[in-house]
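Running this now, will post back.
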Amino acid sequence: MAPHPAAGASLIGAIVGAMAKRSSRRNPNPRDRRQESQRPNPRSSGPGPQGKRGPRQSGRGGGQGISVSVDEQAVAEALAEAPGLVTASQLAELMGLTGDAPKGVSRALISLKETGKALELRPGKWASPGTGGEFPVVVETGATAEELCARFDDQRLLPIPKPHRMGARPGDTALAVVGDDGLALLTRLVSRGGRRLVGTLNFQYGRVTVVPDRRREGSLPVLRDEGEVLDRYRAGDRVVAMVVDDEHHGFAAVLERILDASDPEVADFEQVCLVHDLPGDFAPAVLAAAEALEADFDPAQRRDCRNDLVFTIDPDTAKDFDDAICLERLENGGWRLAVHIADVSHFVRPNSLIDAEAQFRGTSCYLVNRVIPMLPEHLSNGLCSLVPLEDRYVLSAFIDLDRRGQVRKVDLAEAIINSRQRLDYGQALAIIEGRDPGIELAEGIAESVQQSHELAQLLRRNREAKGALNLYGQEAAFTLDVEGNPIEVVQETSDVAHQLIEEFMLLANREVAAWLSDRVPAVVYRVHGEPDESRLAFFQELVTGYGLPPMAVTDRPSLQRVLKRLEKEPPASRLVLNFLLLRCFQKAQYSTDESLGHYALAFSHYCHFTSPIRRYPDLIDHRLVKFALGLDAYRDSETRPDYLEALAKRSSFLERRAQDAERELHAIKAARYLHTRLGDEFQGVVLSASGAGLHVHLVEVGMEALLPLREMGDDFYVFSRERLALIGRSTGRVLGVGTELQVQVVAVDIPRSDVTLAPAGGLRPARPKRRD
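Update: finished.
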């Protein structure tokens, strides 16, 4: 489990401090170095400890015997402006110095290095620590116990060479730059932190090791008396271990306890929490602070919407209701849409104990049938949740639209509501389709849902007309028994009821982002970059090779045409091709950079505003709205761009951590489910091919499994790098991305979520004839 919130707070503080020493320019790619000029760090100049300037060196310039003075301030300023790594000679040239000046520059660089104002990232190669090339990383073990890697916020994992580790250990947080050779070079340790892992105990050749569940990590020797280990542990035990330094092995494992595998419900959840360092239970002080908050909903100073026809639509299992809507038809044929969002910022004030905890967690984490919430239950399911027939505080966006669905006016305000109806998606869909929802409806709800559906579809068509990309997707959800074993799989897809809420929330997020952009120094935007051109080119070849008409995929309109064409494909193929197209895109993230926009949504401004119960960036933007509204209680809200950018980066990291944990637990449950169906046949679609075999997406359970070459006995298959496919030497059969197969589950490793497949049917090896 993750440490106390103070650890998270210290990380934010350290990152903010590091960023505050730089200019406001940002570099999203660690490989790029700044080439523009930058204001020098005032600490790099001025008198030294003795009240004197740093050493001044002389050299000859231009062969004319002119003495050139080189001091540390000038060198530091030039280094900050240098494009990438430079040598002393190159830096002297940039400074316009010749002759023996490089020697003086070199001596100044060495002096600056001692004070941390110059970085020698490779022998003789220098950079400034203030050039924007440093990025926060988490240190992890590599393929062996001696190797270290740095995980960046974008989840890239790069090796750290020994000369640039700065004494870092697995679990530490540091700042790093990326060298020209693709290695991560640590420049500063931010915080220490141990890291736990889950693995299997192995006894071999008189050694005791832990084999981590993550295959990319090598086995670690156990630091413990062998007799003590033999007394308490057995080979094959699933254990929790702490990674520590070891002078003999580099890194080793200290055993903490056996992970109880008798209860899958607890074991699976605990394993994922440990591996991903997820937060545990709320501290008693945080719970007490939440319980002390009173349910006193005074309408004074707020817009009173309690008589409006407000309702919510959420999943049937939801308990935390972030958003509610109200739609009014105007006399001119247009609409007035009110999107009411839980006013979490009223209860969670900046720098409070609850706020520190929420910032530390960053997001709620949804783990199959469990939730690790961002806020204590008294808030998430109580005071903040927009439950029906109870007064609740909201921060609302009132949006006027004309009959074509174009926004004409936006008004933001604190309000109070009393929701008339709580609907789930199934009930809303029934109303839209004219069926009986199975519950008693408040007066006017059915008509309002129908009108909301009409407007939502108009908004969706408008988005598509402007280039928005609506990818097809479905999720496999498991029904678990009381012991945590999956017994049923249900496919969840987006229908028009989901689209109703989706379109209204997208509209509110877009309009709030645009509204804020004109009123505050910085906004925590939700940004999405353009897709990778090389990956798009490969996808274009894939689509053509799959039998679809040749189509360019160079811009949003062409991508839209591809998506429309894919709608005619069978669901399995459509799902996988959409998934492969998604791989061409960058991951959406949080940033204060207004220029980035959101590519997939085709929005120039977009933020997360509609889920403050479960996402910290939404809470930050709520505070910014109240600051912009001039509300007295929020005049001191944090608006510094560097601080908000640090929060944005941290929030992106915490979001990815939660997503990784959610995917891993889903894979574990899928493996448990498939273990009960060994020998059964499933529909699969090839995601990729390699020399090891085919990586197949199992449609029913939504996970990837390996069909190894050894199981494909109908031919001798060879991997083609040009076609990224396996080709049968005798038959010429091509098995590549998008190929549909019937496969059979033959082996399952539940802890590692590894599933091995065999062909079902045409690819089976011929059976030898029976001899009588």
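The two ends are 63 Å apart (CA to CA). More later if anyone needs it.
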